[in-house]
Amino acid sequence: MKYIVLDLEWNQSPKGKEDSVPHLPFEIIEIGAVMLNEHMEPEGKFHRLIRPQVYRQLHFKISEVTHLNMDELKKRGSLFCDAMEEFLEWCGEEEFRFCTWGSMDLTELQRNMAHYRVENPFPRPLLYYDVQKLYCLQYGDGSTKESLDQAVQEQEVQEERPFHRALDDAYYTGRILSRLDMERYGVYLSVDYYRLPRSKEEEFRLYFPNYSKYVSRPFDNKEDIMKDKDLADVVCLRCGRMLRKKIRWFPCGQKLYLCLAVCPDHGYMRGKVRVKRSEYDQYYGVKTIKAASEADMEQILQKREDMRKRRSGKKVTPPASGSQRRSP
C-alpha cells in the first residue's frame, strides 16, 4: 500500500457566493502531492499550476494567502483536464490511499472533475486518511482540529518551506503522517461523501474499533430519512445484536437525531444521525453508533429534556458542569 498525500489550492468567485457557478464553488488552481511508501518514506512528488477557466480573477484572500497571481497562472498553468490526466498517471495502478489535511480536498477534486467531465476512476466509497483527524486523536483531545502549521510547530518539524502552497502543504502533511502511530490510528479511515450510494445495495457500512458508520442513499426530503429502517435500527458494536431503544430517536435541532439503546451483554450504545444535503439538493443520513459512557447518557437525557422544553415554550436551564463533559 502506498500513500498519496494530496493538497489543493483553489480560487472562488471574487463577488461572493451569489455569483458562484452552480456545483463549482471552488476552482482548483494548484495540485500538489507527495507519494510515500509503506514505510512512510517519500518516493515521488507531483506539482501543477492550473490555468483558471471559470473564475478568471483571483479572490483577494486567495492571492494574499498563496502569493499567486493570475499572470503566473496563465503563463505557467496547465488546463485542468491535462493536469488531471498527468496526475492520475502519476498515481499509478498500484494500490494507494489518499491522505489529506482535513475533509475538503477530495470533494473539491471530484467537483472539478465533474465540471470538466473528467472520468472519475476512484472507488465507491472513497476511503481516505484525514491526517488532521488522526493527529487530533493521537496528540489532541479527539475533537479540536488544529491547523497544519500548528501541528508542524508542535512536532518541531523543520519549517524549510512556506505554507499555503499545494506541494509544500502536502510535504508537511506527509511529515506529520509519518509521525503518527498508524498501527493504532490507521484503522480510523474517513469516507468522502461527494459520490453517494445510488441505491440501497450501495449504501456504505463501515466498522471501526470504537464506532460504526452508515451512509444512506439520498432522499427527496428530510422527513423520509428517519423512516428508513436501516437508519433507524441500532445494532450492538460488539455482538451485532439488534437493540431495544431506551430513548427513541428524537430531533436535536434541524440536522441531528439522537437515541440511546441498550445491549444486555455490552451495555448502552449511543446513536447519532446527521442529516446532510447532497450535491444536488437531496438529503442523506450519516449514522454513527458508539458505546455510551455515563457522560454520554447524561448528555442525551439533558438534550431530550431541553428539546421537550423548547417545544412546550419553557425556558431551557443550562446543564450542570458534570454533564458538559466532552464525550470520548
Description:
The chain has helices spanning 60-66, 70-76, 80-91, 105-115, 131-139, 148-154, 166-177, 182-185, 229-232, 294-312; strands at residues 2-11, 27-36, 42-49, 96-100, 126-130, 190-192, 204-207, 211-215, 244-251, 256-263, 267-277, 283-291. With 328 residues, it is an alpha+beta fold. The strands form two sheets. A six-stranded mixed β-sheet has the order 3-2-1-4-5-6, sandwiched between helices. InterPro entries: 3-5_Exoribonuclease, ERI-1_3'hExo-like, Ribonucl_H, RNaseH-like_sf, RNaseH_sf.
Strand content: 25-35%
Lateral arrangement of strands in the main beta sheet: 3-2-1-4-5-6
Indicate the low-confidence ranges by residue numbers.
Answer: 321-328
The overall strand count is 12
If helices are DSSP runs of H or I spanning 4 or more residues, what is the number of helices? 10
* H/E topology pattern: EEEHHHEHEHHHHEEEHEEEEH
Overall, the morphology is: globular
Q: What structural class is derived from the secondary structure elements?
A: alpha+beta
Mean pLDDT: 93
- What percent of the residues sit in helical stretches (DSSP H or I)? 25-40%
Rg calc: 22 Å
How would you name the oligomeric state of the polypeptide chains in this document? single chain
For the record, give the distance between the C-alpha atoms at the N and C termini, rounded to a whole number: 30 Å
What summary fits the major beta sheet? Answer: 6 strands, mixed
